[in-house]
Structure formats: structure tokens, C-alpha cells
Amino acid sequence: SQQLGTVLTSRVSQYACQRRTTLDNRNKIFTDAFEVLVEHLEFSDSKGPCLAFKRAASVLKSLPSTLRHLGDADGLPCLGEHCRDIFECGKCSRVEDLMCNEKFRTMKLFTSVFGVGPKTAEKWYHRGLRTLQEVVSQPNVHLNKMQRAGLLYYRDISRGISRAEADAVGRIIAETMHCISPSATMTLTGGFRRGKAFGHDVDYILSTPESGAEEALLLRVIDRLRYQGILLYCDYQESTFDKERIPCRRFEAMDHFPKCFLILKLDAMTVEDGGLQNNPEDQRGWRAVRVDLVAPPADRYAYTLLGWTGSTQFERDLRRFARLERGMLLDNHALYDRNKSILLPAKTEEDIFAHLGLEYIEPWQRNA
Ligand code: CTP
Ligand code: MN
Ligand code: MN
Ligand code: MN
Q: Going from the N-terminus, what domains does the chain have, and what CATH number goes with each?
């Protein structure tokens, strides 16, 4: 672990926004174990220790080599006593117990459905339901619109989206958008912008040159997708954005911009090379894909791009760093300097990193 020694002497920051984390995770055996514990805690609603495990996994993802000895973890931040058994045996017995625990497995299955969170999953579990087949065939299980779509397209949605499929989605949205407004722009964000080869959805930011036209653009894009017959599901969230509002202290995953969570019908003919990620026996010639679109006003584009690129842990630490180290408040809408009582303008992500006094981290180095 000579390489690690070098890392330790150069000090690993406790903040993910001061680490460069690529997709090349050398400590996957440990981070996978942490992720099982995180899921378990999320099912049981224990926020505190959950965050500690997320931070520990995130530090490990940033290391240039695999931890070999317990002592390797010594100088590293966020890797306290609670992580000991994970290092000692890679997969600790608690993780192995969870993996074969009926309740954990069922919760994992149910929460993997679009629109189903821990509360609904728990309710179904307590009713004695164990499979998705049982859920759909129970006459007295009430499903909302999102859950009905989640179950209807479950097979497609739970299968990863390839880069070629994401590109095909991008061409469809771009073409649709440019028919409405030739000057509008579209930017890939989320996991695919961080370089992931597969995603659970495709995330795009739509933007107009002038602030104020974005909400109408998004509504018209949705209308046209519907007219083309490829809109399988749409949850539209209108703007609740207030220009005067200052970022709040609490971490909010949701922003106030107009956005939509969609399921689109992707035709195999539109996907270059490889084709669809379908099973060979699947002869439909199309698949369902989850797509998220957000349309911020032009002057808030940079904050939205930074916020939607993720990873979630990277975002969480950017905001924590801003607040604790700089006395600033950051979210998807704005950056606010509490000492000077001013909003700091930004045209690019680089502007925001500069305001925060942080070295620029490339999107593919934000896989924290
Ligand atoms: N996000 C957000 N507001 C939302 C939805 C998402 O700010 N209403 C942010 C999330 O915090 C995340 C990013 O957008 O940083 C992308 O979210 P998501 O698509 O859930 O995750 P990805 O990182 O893209 O990973 P995946 O491949 O699973 O989609
Ligand atoms: Mn995504
Ligand atoms: Mn996700
Ligand atoms: Mn998304």
C-alpha cells in the first residue's frame, strides 16, 4: 500500500467536492457492503448513521488503490469505528444476513418500482405481499398513477439504459424541441454526463436564450411527444421558483424549476449500433425509458447544471462545504454569500467553483 501512503500524506479531504472520484472504484468490495447497510437504514428511516456510511463509501471510491490492511484506513476521514467489520472481512456478517433476509429482499424489490418508496413497500410487506405478481393481482391494493406505470413498465425500467439508447432519446428530444424553438438548447446531465455507461434514466436540461420562455417550451415539448405517440407516462411539476428566495440551510434534493418525470417509448430503429437492451426473445421492437427534463431560467442554468450532474453525495458535500467553510448557501437555484448578503452570479460551473474557492472538478470526477 505504498500508493495509499502517498495519498494519506497528501491528505484526503472530508468533502467530496475536494476529491476527484472517477468511475474506476478500486474498493468496490467495501463500498458494495456499505451500500447494503445504507439501503437497510433507508428502509428503516434512520438518517444519522446512514449518512456516515454514505460518507465512508464515498471516501473509499476516491482512493487510487484497494485498502489491504485495517491500518490503511487510519489517516482517512469519515472511516470511523463503525466501519471496522467491513474492512476485516470485506463482506461483514451483517451484510450477508441482510442479503438473505426476507424483509430486506422484499423491500429492495418493492422500492425498485418507480413511484414506490419505503413507506409503501413496508405497507405491502405487512399485508403479506412478497412478489410484484402478488401486488398487481391484489384487488384491494391501491396504486397511484406513478406506481401503475412503474409496475406496467417494470421489466424495461429496471433494465439499465445504455449510452446508445440515451443518445437516441437525446436526438428525439432535441428534434422535438428545435421544431418549437430553434434557439433553445439541451444539455445532457445526471449520471451519463459523469461518464456512466448505464443509467436508470436520462436527464436533460432544456434552456431558452431569454429567461421566462422556458416553462412554455417544456410544456410544448411534452405536448409534441404526446402527439408523436411516444409519451407513455408524464408527471409534470410546474414552476414554484421565486427569484428573491435565498438558498435554505437544509439539503433539498428537489428544486423549484418546471420539470417533468417521463416514461418514453423508444423505438429500436432510432438506436444506433447495439440496438435496444432487450432480451433476445423480446420481439416488441421498442422499450420504455425513464427521462427527466428540467427547464430553469437562463440566468440559473449553471446552478442547475451543477446540481443535476450529481452525484448526490458530491452535491451534498458541495453544499456542506459552502455553508461550513465559506459561509455561503448553495442549491440548484443560486449561490448566496451570507457575509456580504448578496447572490453571486454565475454563467458556468467554473464560476461557481471559483466563487467557492474550489479547484474545478470535471463531471467525470464527481462520481463520489
Ligand atoms: N436531482 C435534483 N432534483 C431533482 C431530481 C434530481 O437536483 N428533482 C439531482 C440529483 O440530486 C442528482 C441528479 O439530479 O444529483 C441526477 O439524479 P438521478 O437521475 O436520480 O441520478 P443519476 O446520478 O443520474 O444516476 P442514475 O444513473 O441512477 O440516473
Ligand atoms: Mn439520472
Ligand atoms: Mn438514481
Ligand atoms: Mn433523474
A: 2-97 (1.10.150.110), 104-152 (1.10.150.20), 161-301 (3.30.460.10), 304-365 (3.30.210.10)
